[in-house]
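Justification of resources, computational component.

The compute hours requested in this renewal are based largely on the per-chain cost of generating structure records like the one below. Each record pairs the submitted sequence with a full structure-token output. That output is archived, and it is also reused by downstream analysis tasks.
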Amino acid sequence: MSQAMRAGMTADDFFRWHVLQERRYELVDGEPVMMAGANQRRAQIVTNSILAIASRLGSSDCRPFTSDTAVLIPAGNIRYPDLTVDCGRLVDDSMHATEPRVVVEVLSPTTATFDQTERLEEYRTVPTLIQVLVVNPDAMEARLHSRTDTGWISAPLRGEAASVDLSSVDVSFPLGELYRGLSFRPRPALVG
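The structure output for this chain reads:
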């Protein structure tokens, strides 16, 4: 597809185009932008996140989806979070969440700053999205952003026993579950 044809793509145009691509893209300001792949460490955290959440949803109407399911940003962008909990109606052919309630993003070195600023601001504009969990793959820490009646609040989570409280979908689990099977490099000690 030529550059001129891609400029100003709609969501429908993008999804029709995207299914024919070998690589993964997001739609940003009307243009497809290639996404980077994940390393095994990030992929393990995403897998652990799916297991932790799915095993606790029980008979809920909410379902966890992988990064193959898009979240539509009201301003027109299309994002692919690492994990989305969708509480809307299941639409077999839909390529996007119908009622995203929770998003999980595992940081990567190339997008960490963007994920914690601009991408987070985009997620905050999605009316049904109540919580965004941003996970650090290199230390047992995360930040949980939650919508309240008066705006958004942010809570740091540190250590294996810290509780990840996804109250919007009635799920809670210890942060350590996200890091199951992983080890950490020792941090350098400060010399006094």
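The first strand starts at residue 25 and ends at 28. Residues 16 and 46 are 27 Å apart (CA to CA).
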